[in-house]
Amino acid sequence: MAFTAWLSLVVCSAASRVFDETEPVDLLQRTLQLDGGSEGAAAQAERLRKVLPMAWIHVPKCGTSFANTLVGMPHFCPDAPENYDVESSAPDGCLFRVFAPNVCKSFCDQNYLHCWNGKDGNNYHAFVGNESQYLKVKGHMVGLFRQPEQRLLSAYYDGHDWINGGNGTRCDKSHTGELSVPDFAPLFAGSMTYQLTYPQPVHWGAKYGPTITRSLALEAAKRVKEGFAYVGLTEEWDLSICLFHAMFGGACHSSEFRNVRPGEHEKESDGEYDTSVLEGFQDEMDGLVYAEAVRIFHKNLALYNVSAQSCRAGCWQEAIKGLHDA
Question: Would you indicate the residue range of the signal peptide (predicted)?
Fold first, then answer.
């Protein structure tokens, strides 16, 4: 049983900051070494030191819940309330309106977590941009990726057709069917490529954005390979959370394994959307980006010895213990 199901049963302006890999984080290293007392903890602290401040690249429909992981890291957000759950900051489900201006900049230390401003996106879905902008965050980016057709369907069912002329509205999971799935899909395709390569934000979707070409998609895939300190997969959520902590340390918390923005549309028995409604459409450009993310993810699972078994024995148990101790 996945931890998320098991758990339900048991109950920053940082845009101008220089990303300096040499800045000491002795306090963090001491904390992690005291927690773990091992050579592994020291290695985690050193890996973390090199990637601070982390810059979260959040593609739409690729894991809002990851905010709980970042907020819960040692020293990242020292002013956040104890046992803080990011869902409480956006009770209407519209986290992008509040995360950077209200959560990140109010609670978090920008030496640890880069808080995007409006020039970088909409305070939440940041754009990496042109070469000079990319170089500022290269090696510091973290984020999750999602199978492209599943991401498109999640966006459609979540009311994202508002951006392309439909009657869906932001954040309230409202969809009135103004656009059909086959009409919507090509308008919203390429978002991973778009976010990793376009120099400044415009309205989401191919209707308003640049033409997504194969060369842009290959550049985006290259940036995933060379620019991301951590890559997770939305459809491998539990393993992704365990991998993050295996790489960078920090205690595992139950809130990290809870989906703070669950979709309301019916899914198949395997938890995926039925893609037949796309009538054969495939997001080929984002497929190139996603393939690179999958490759990196599985390489790092092997490198850091993360598996379902190790996750269950380590991170999950730690999260459950935290529940009982709370």
Answer: 1-15
CA 24 to chain centre: 26
Q: Where are the alpha helices (DSSP H) in 60-102?
A: 66-71
The type of residue at 176 is T
Range of lowest pLDDT (34-48, 67-81, 220-234, 309-323): 34-48
Instruction: Please choose, from the candidates 313, 127, 187, the residue with its C-alpha nearest in 3D space to the C-alpha of residue 238.
Output: 313
Q: Phi/psi of residue 118, each to 5°?
A: -60, -30
The number of residues making up the chain comes to 326
pTM over 0.85: no
DSSP string, 189-206: TTHHHHHHH-SS--SSST
Half-sphere exposure of 318 (CA within 13 A, CB side): 17
| Residue type for position 304 | Y
SS3 per residue for 104-154: HHHHCCCCCECCCCHHHCCCCCCCCCCHHHHHHHCCCEEEEECCHHHHHHH
pLDDT digits over 238-263, tens only?
999 999 999 999 999 888 887 555 55
Label residue 179 exposed, middle or buried (CB < 10 Å: 0-12, 13-18, 19+).
buried
The pLDDT of 219-225, averaged and rounded, is 97
Q: Which domains does the chain have, with CATH numbers?
A: 3-325 (3.40.50)
DSSP symbols for 269-294: TTS---GGGGTT---HHHHHHHHHHH
**Lowest-pLDDT range of 114-128, 188-202, 254-268, 295-309:** 254-268
Residue 183 or residue 208, greater confidence: 183
